[in-house]
Amino acid sequence: MNNLSLIKHEIKRLVFNKKYFYMSLILILSTSDKLLRLVIHGEYGTAPFSKWSYSNFTTLISPLLITILILLSTNVFSEKEIKARKIIYSTPITQTKYYTIKAASIFIAYLTTLFIPIIISFIYYGVLFKFYNYASFIKPIIYFLIPSFILFLGLCMIVGKMSLKLLYALIPFAFLNGLNFKFPVWIDLYGNNFLLNYGYTVWKDNTTGIVPYNIPMDFMISRAIFVLFGIILFVITCKKSETI
């Protein structure tokens, strides 16, 4: 079995089961609710299909998406998987290769999951507002969804390696970060506090009636740090020896 075949096998294990089906169903219902109840009003006087409104949408769905990521990661550290790992490590597959395959599988499974709310939002904008310029949403997706995902993927790997119970404990942590505590950007994992503080300031001080989508450099740097930190955590997971 080559690496690609192993990854395909892992992806099938992650997504072709009742657990993933129910997670996807909850995500569909939650996404639809947020679009119809919250996003439809727009953000800071802008249209529901503005970049600011879509950025807000990404922060609203982030806690549930990250929770799904955590639950996907639990498959790597279940008792059944740990027993299988004893056999796997007796083969030419190294620890680094093992975790790389697992992380790559979770990465692809999560991206597949991420397409669910994105596609629903595209349908929503097309049907209700006849808005089809979906390319304008690329920046909000990159700025607000990708950094937290990479950070949590690395965090899930290193925490799960320490304890499965600790990995489950990340779920309330994921939801708590979706609340607006006026966190600075450096610990604002989803960017919701940033939108609340900075977005309001831009809207309040604006005199033209148009709220420009300008993201400050400190926020961009914080997202880059999240990505870097997530990668570092994953590398540590691969390199740190474990006793099975």
From TrEMBL:
- Top-level division of the source organism's lineage: Bacteria
Q: Which UniProt keywords apply?
A: Membrane, Transmembrane, Transmembrane helix
Coiled coil location: none
TM helices/strands, residue ranges:
20-40, 60-78, 99-125, 137-159, 166-187, 220-238
Instruction: List the protein's name.
Output: ABC-2 type transport system permease protein
State the species of origin. Maledivibacter halophilus
